[in-house]
């Protein structure tokens, strides 16, 4: 079900308590150029069957009402469908100060047939998106229009930019995680190295304690063999300390 607005506006000849014209009958032309058929008897029957007054809103805002057409006041005349309009305070101000001067009915449509009256707008000119039928959230049949194609291009461009940003974000997250892991690995390596150094220092202290200087004077005059020099060098102690440990 779609919503349609006719091309020709209706003059607001409002007088309190009198019926005013809210819709033409027969074949009418929509703002998009299509021709619609309005069957007065069928339309009035639908309005009464729905048991809802028809809202008058400001400039097709589809928001708060500025007046109501009583559901039981709709009648067919030779030139159209008429109904009684009851304005609220805001509606009276807009009409009395002649801020708006025309009525623009919004119809429910099924193909070329008008199946219901959705609302009536108080307007000065058709004020609809792209100057076409108003669909109130329904999909517009403009897939072959240049505007639609341009919109698709723009959406595709935005989609690609969005994908690029997502990829960049993922890369930054990955780099950040890798950096944290590398930092953790470096910290682990550093800790392991310090532990090894501490163990080596501890071993050297133990070796030094074993190869003390208690016999240093007794062995001071003795010369070390090449094998003993090599052992002392491997242990990281001086030749004199090695002599003292002998």
Structure, described:
By secondary structure, the protein is an alpha+beta fold. It folds into three domains: 2-142, no CATH class; 145-209; 211-246, no CATH class. It has six helices and eleven strands. The protein has helices at residues 40-50, 89-96, 146-210, 216-219, 226-235, 239-245; strands spanning 2-5, 10-11, 19-23, 26-29, 35-38, 54-58, 65-69, 75-77, 80-87, 102-110, 113-123. The strands form two sheets. Strands 1, 2, 3, 6, 7, 8, 9, 10 and 11 form a nine-stranded mixed sheet that branches. Strands 4-5 form a two-stranded antiparallel ribbon. A hairpin with a 5-residue loop joins strand 4 (26-29) and strand 5. The longest helix is centred in the last third of the chain and has 65 residues, at 146-210. The protein starts with a strand and ends with a helix. Residues 127-140 and 209-217 have low confidence and may be disordered.
- Average residue-wise pLDDT: 74
Low-confidence stretches: 127-140, 209-217
Annotation field: number of helices: 6
Could you state the order of secondary-structure elements as H and E?
A: EEEEEHEEEEHEEHHHH
Q: Oligomeric status of the shown chains?
A: single chain
Main beta sheet: 9 strands, mixed
Percent range for β-strand residues: 15-25%
Please, how many domains?
3
**Count of extended strands:** 11
**Structural Rg:** 47 Å
Span between termini: 109 Å
- The assigned structural class equals alpha+beta
Shape: rod-shaped
Helix fraction? 40-55%
InterPro entries: Phage_Mu_Gp1 (IPR012106)
Region (Disordered): 170-195
Pfam families: Mu-like_Pro
Protein name: Mu-like prophage I protein
């Amino acid at each position: 079900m779609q919503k349609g607005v006719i091309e020709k506006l209706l003059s607001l000849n409002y007088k309190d308590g009198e019926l005013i014209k809210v819709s033409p009958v027969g074949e009418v032309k929509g703002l998009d150029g299509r021709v619609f058929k309005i069957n007065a008897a069928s339309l009035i029957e639908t309005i009464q069957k729905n048991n809802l007054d028809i809202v008058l809103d400001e400039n097709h805002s589809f928001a708060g009402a500025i007046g109501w057409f009583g559901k039981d006041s709709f009648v067919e005349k030779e030139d159209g469908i008429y109904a009684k309009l009851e304005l609220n305070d805001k509606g009276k101000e807009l009409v009395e100060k002649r801020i708006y001067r025309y009525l623009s009915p919004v119809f429910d449509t099924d193909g070329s047939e008008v199946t219901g009256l959705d609302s009536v707008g108080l307007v000065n000119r058709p004020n609809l998106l792209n100057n076409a039928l108003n669909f109130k959230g329904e999909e517009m049949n403009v897939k072959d229009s240049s505007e639609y194609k341009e919109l698709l291009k723009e959406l595709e461009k935005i989609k690609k930019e969005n994908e690029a940003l997502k990829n960049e974000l993922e890369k930054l997250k990955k780099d950040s995680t890798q950096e944290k892991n590398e930092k953790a690995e470096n910290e682990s390596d550093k800790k392991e190295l310090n532990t090894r150094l501490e163990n080596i220092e501890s071993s050297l202290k133990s070796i030094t304690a074993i190869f003390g200087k208690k016999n240093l004077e007794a062995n001071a005059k003795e010369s070390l063999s090449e094998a003993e020099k090599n052992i002392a060098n491997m242990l990281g102690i001086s030749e004199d300390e090695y002599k003292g440990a002998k």
